[in-house]
Amino acid sequence: MELLKKKIMEVGRVEAGGVLKVDSFLNHQLDIELLNEVGKEFKKRFEGKKVTKILTAEVSGIAIAVLAGQYFNVPVVFAKKTESKNLDKDTFQGEVYSYTKEKHYKIRVSKRYLDSSDHVLIIDDFLANGQALLGLKQIVDEAKAQLVGAGIVIEKGFQKGGQLAKEANIHVESLAIISSMEDGKISFKEPSQE
Amino acid sequence: MELLKKKIMEVGRVEAGGVLKVDSFLNHQLDIELLNEVGKEFKKRFEGKKVTKILTAEVSGIAIAVLAGQYFNVPVVFAKKTESKNLDKDTFQGEVYSYTKEKHYKIRVSKRYLDSSDHVLIIDDFLANGQALLGLKQIVDEAKAQLVGAGIVIEKGFQKGGQLAKEANIHVESLAIISSMEDGKISFKEPSQE
């Protein structure tokens, strides 16, 4: 998606530890106009697929999932990372390993909001190590729902998430695939390689 | 807002400890169509006011703020609750007291995304004790930005947040004001009392 890649080139900053900062439009300040285009693009990429629910994980997946939800005309459910008295006791759970924090944590969705009749599209901001995506897939599987695929805004193509998703048979559509961030220079995979 | 009150009456559940569960449409599963109407209503309530930015706090303010952002045509910024390597070091901070957890925590916005030229509309899902709202106001004040007001989806009118906001000179527009949840029965303030 050219508009998105252009934005990443303009404002994305590569920081120590291989962090790509895109907080001016994607995960702190939100560029609603651009993220609306992202939502439309997801609709186009999954055209013709039956989707009854969009699933994402808090926090930074929510904005994109909600804007995309408008084009799919379906409810959005976000998995919660924290145990909270506001969350039902009866949940589907996924386990996520955080490389940053070097520990596992759980993400949870109340059993009220997913069931075996659902066709679920996962939407998230990043695909890097693939751990969040696999945790979300676990929730879909636990609910015995159908996983339609995953719409990803930015995939770090040089990390293993894409490969893990392929092995798990997840149809991934990434709108921008970064092939390298070496020396602070962001390069994208050519569309023919995507 | 009648549509919203109707939804709360239909699906809201009053639980132990005075918790109003509206997670079927507002803070776990998200009813995008309804929340879009909420966004439009905020636009109507603040018609004619200059707004350059919408500010909310993670997690459950994000969905509403993003959908509302479409009607105001401005970027949305969400304050972060957790220190993260993805957040700039240089931040505006607000202090929030959590009655549930009985402790203070900080919410933060990078100084890149608010400044003294901004006219800020705060949007949040709930107004109860008013602590989150006052923390967000602190951030706006620190940035020396103009606070336009606060758009709230559900106000618990029997808690002190509304009064505190009035004392702090914040123009609050709440789309549904609950006057009582005694014995599990939800009552709203009459529009004339709002």
Automatic annotation (TrEMBL), chains A, B:
Q: What's a Gene Ontology MF term here?
A: xanthine phosphoribosyltransferase activity
The EC class name is transferase
One Pfam family, short name:
Pribosyltran
Summarize where 5-phospho-alpha-D-ribose 1-diphosphate binds, as residue positions. A128, N129, G130, Q131, A132
> InterPro entries, from UniProt?
PRTase-like, PRTase_dom, Pur/Pyrimidine_PRTase, Xanthine_PRibTrfase
State where xanthine binds. L20, N27, K156
Q: What residue stretches are annotated with the Phosphoribosyltransferase domain?
A: 37-157
Give the UniProt subcellular location, in the record's own words. Cytoplasm
Question: What domain of life does the UniProt record list for this protein's source?
Answer: Bacteria
Q: Which reactions appear under catalytic activity for this entry?
A: XMP + diphosphate = xanthine + 5-phospho-alpha-D-ribose 1-diphosphate
The EC number(s) given in the record are 2.4.2.22
- Which pathway does it serve? Purine metabolism; XMP biosynthesis via salvage pathway; XMP from xanthine: step 1/1
List UniProt keywords, sorted A-Z. Cytoplasm, Glycosyltransferase, Purine salvage, Transferase
Please state which protein family the record places this protein in: Belongs to the purine/pyrimidine phosphoribosyltransferase family. Xpt subfamily.
Describe the subunit structure: Homodimer.
| PANTHER family associated with the record | HYPOXANTHINE/GUANINE PHOSPHORIBOSYLTRANSFERASE, XANTHINE PHOSPHORIBOSYLTRANSFERASE
The protein's role, per its UniProt record: Converts the preformed base xanthine, a product of nucleic acid breakdown, to xanthosine 5'-monophosphate (XMP), so it can be reused for RNA or DNA synthesis.
Listed NCBIfam families: PRK09219.1, XPRTase
What is the protein named? Answer: Xanthine phosphoribosyltransferase
| Taxonomic source organism | Alkaliphilus hydrothermalis
What gene is this protein a product of?
xpt
